[in-house]
Write a structure and sequence with these properties.
The chain has about 425 residues and is of the alpha/beta class. It has one domain: 3-Layer(aba) Sandwich (Rossmann fold). Helix content is about 40%, strand content about 15%. It contains 17 helices and 11 strands. The longest helix is centred in the middle third of the chain and has 20 residues. The structure holds 2-acetamido-2-deoxy-beta-D-glucopyranose (4 copies). The site of one 2-acetamido-2-deoxy-beta-D-glucopyranose (NAG) has 2 residues, from loops.
Length: about 425
């Protein structure tokens, strides 16, 4: 009964959203309810945002070994120590700055004296390019999963940053898929471990046994239909337009978003929601989703499964090999949320047991979800000073004699919102593990 009810509730909400796709007269809801500057931010690119907020943005094009052309966006502080930040699935370099100079990690690290480089994985809006292949007409462009992002894109980005700055090492930040790809790289091409002072894993996505998002069942069926060589949600303003046309539409969009990442109203700046939908989703290949679903279903962190015959040809065995996590020798600092539906506490703790060199386990408060460590309202006072301290310690080669370094920390308090929030979801009492 519970199952049937929630299934109808999803279907109803989905139909409502689809109904909203039909064009109506130009909506003024967003203009009437959000600051002009927020609406502007929703429509600017990463480099335009940097320019608007008077930060020194630079564009660098990185060519991978297999000839993909990637945009890396730099907040340039020549001579300073470099950090490389890599986004999650369907996200982009903008993720590190969209919440604005008073909050974004990209700005924070620049202000703290770093030379900040923000990568874009192949296939998103900024890295839809190749020396020979045309993403609009060549199916072969869309043949990658996050495996190739880890094996080709990250090494190319790291080598470019080190080459352009003259440093021998950098510090790395990954969010979600940005951690998956790092672990693929550092296990498959272990020589890259020595180029990294410390890997900061924000909501790491490796094991997926305990994923709680009820939409994964729907994703499995959807990906079965569309296959693994299909551009998923190419960046456009479709989501922005649909989600900002009325208060009800906004509520529905947030309902679905929270079903995927875990709900935490207290850390989401409601004024900034249009900016999020202006930048997210930023584009990806369906094979990235497919590969995650294989990890989820096989309960192994392993290479892509092409089926027995192809596996034999590619891997010389019937099943795809596991990524050898024991080869990841770079120090890893892990930040994870207790209400994250994708990177659950159980799965992150399983990962930490397997990694040889975890230097910090930072468990965020009970309400924190998949994105709070980047977009949360309180990141500047809460987590960013901790991040900075970890960077400084590991850039200096690890804790020096006699220093007392925290290696395990659990946040005890979480914020609650005092006033009734217009977007509080009172109708959605569905069980988080209910499938659709
Ligand atoms: C960067 O790469 C170029 C071309 O390969 C090379 O000539 C140069 O020495 C490199 N610079 C540094 C700092 O490694
Ligand atoms: C929310 O975002 C608005 C617009 O950028 C900003 O003015 C405000 O300070 C933010 N609120 C919090 C609590 O950070
Ligand atoms: C202090 O550091 C030196 C060199 O880094 C090392 O040889 C020595 O064992 C350290 N002492 C302690 C007590 O850890
Ligand atoms: C390190 O700090 C913790 C917490 O502040 C304290 O409990 C512990 O005794 C300290 N250890 C040393 C060796 O100073």
């Amino acid at each position: 009964m519970q199952h049937a009810n929630s299934r109808w509730s999803y279907l109803f909400r989905l139909l409502y959203l689809i109904g909203q796709l039909w064009p109506t007269s130009k909506a003024s809801y967003v203009e009437d309810n959000y600051p002009a500057s927020v609406i502007e931010d929703a429509h600017l690119t990463t480099l335009q945002l940097l320019s608007k907020y008077k930060y020194p943005g630079e564009l660098h094009i990185v060519t991978t070994e297999d000839k993909y052309l990637l945009q890396v966006h730099r907040i340039a502080r020549p001579g300073a120590k470099p950090v490389l930040l890599v986004h999650g699935l369907e996200d982009s370099s903008a993720s590190w700055i969209i919440m604005g100079p008073h909050s974004g990690l990209g700005y924070y690290l620049f202000d703290a004296g770093y030379d900040v480089w923000m990568g874009n994985a192949r296939g998103n809006r900024y890295s839809r390019a190749h020396v020979k292949l045309n993403p609009d007409t060549d199916k072969a462009f869309w043949s990658f999963s996050w495996h190739e992002i880890g094996v080709y894109d990250l090494p190319a980005m790291i080598d470019t940053v080190l080459n352009k700055t003259g440093y021998k090492k950098l510090s790395y930040f990954g969010h979600s898929q940005g951690t998956t790809t790092f672990f693929v790289m550092a296990s498959s091409r272990p020589e890259y471990n020595s180029k990294v002072h410390v890997m900061n894993a924000l909501a790491p996505a490796v094991f997926m046994e305990h994923v709680k998002t009820p939409l994964s069942g729907m994703a499995i069926n959807l990906l079965k239909v569309i296959g693994d060589q299909y551009e998923l949600t190419r960046h456009s303003y479709l989501f922005y337009n649909q989600c900002t046309r009325s208060a009800e539409a906004m509520r529905l969009c947030l309902f679905f978003a929270w079903k995927v990442i875990g709900k935490n109203v207290a850390e989401l700046n409601m004024t900034m929601v249009p900016v999020i939908f202006g930048h997210f989703p930023a584009g990806a290949n369906s094979k990235q989703g497919q590969h995650y679903l294989q990890v989820l279903q096989s309960n192994r962190f392993c290479a892509y499964n092409y089926g027995t015959t192809e596996n034999q040809r590619i891997y010389g065995r019937a099943t795809p090999p596991d990524y050898p996590l024991e080869k990841i020798t770079a120090p890893v600092a892990v930040y994870y949320g207790q209400n994250d539906y994708l990177s659950t506490v159980e799965d992150v703790e399983r990962l930490m047991k397997r990694l040889p060199n975890v230097v910090l386990k930072y468990k965020m408060n009970k309400k924190s979800n998949h994105i709070d460590m980047i977009w949360g309202i309180h990141v500047r006072s809460w987590i960013q000073p901790q991040i900075l301290q970890v960077l400084q310690i590991w850039e200096a080669g690890g804790p020096q004699n006699g220093t007392n370094v925290t290696t395990e920390y659990t946040e005890q308090t979480s914020y609650t919102i005092e006033t009734e929030n217009p977007f509080t979801d009172t109708t959605a009492q569905t069980d988080a593990t209910t499938d659709i």
